[in-house]
Amino acid sequence: MPFEADLAHALDRTTDSLEPDLTRLTDGAVERGRSRSRRRRSAGVIAGVGACAAIAAAGLVLPGALAGARSAGSDMETVALAMPRSAISGTQMIDAVKKTFPGSRFGQEHGQSNDPSNPNGGWVANGEVDVNDGHGAASVGVSAMRLKLPLRDGDGLICDNMAGRADAGDTCELSELPSSAALPGGALVVSEKIAERQPMGADPVPDSEIAHRWTTTVTLKSTGAQLQLVQWDTAGDFSGGNTPKPTRDTPPLSQKQAVAALTGPTWAPILGAVG
User: Fold this and answer.
1) Residues 26, 117, 47, CA angle at the centre, nearest 5°?
2) N or C end of the chain: which has fewer CB within 10 A?
């Protein structure tokens, strides 16, 4: 899936370019991000996000500012992970993704479990599904992981590397959610829209054929628990570094709706299990 093509938002969050041990590290889980899946290009859920045992204990190397998501030309970044509170299965993640898009038709799906008892087994869980809500097919995925406290800007919690990207319609917004019963201590939110650029030297394509991904990352300030939702305006075969043409104009959920979903009752049990 594209989520894996990028992450798990993310999502697992490993990359095709990482060593096999690293793939295993996050394959138990982005991603984003941030990949063993046919659609994982940069972070298959971390797509939530280098050399192995040391990284397993201290952090994860991810491409792009957001774990589980890839921005063209972005640098690798180390995200410090903490052990999840309890295990989350890939099936749980897939079910939660489907509940996030009620009334939709679902296609190919992929889920990965975390394994808190084994650092080499992966500390990031993710679920990815092809979704059609009646407005065109989209690939979506969510990764779940826990960042080490205190949170750092380098953990994908800032908008960086945006210089020159606004001309292509890329956007990144930061916001905060107040403390509540559902979000003790409040949460940080990063919302991105990124055009999938063509490889260097590739023939240019019309704007109408450029796919986009929307990434929404919610991180609890009190625990470091993080959910990352990645939505594409396309679906299909992402293997071989190819990105299918857009099948719709907008993502299934707006950024506001995405934040509401990630902080709502569907994902509350997973947030609690992670952090």
Assistant:
1) 15
2) C
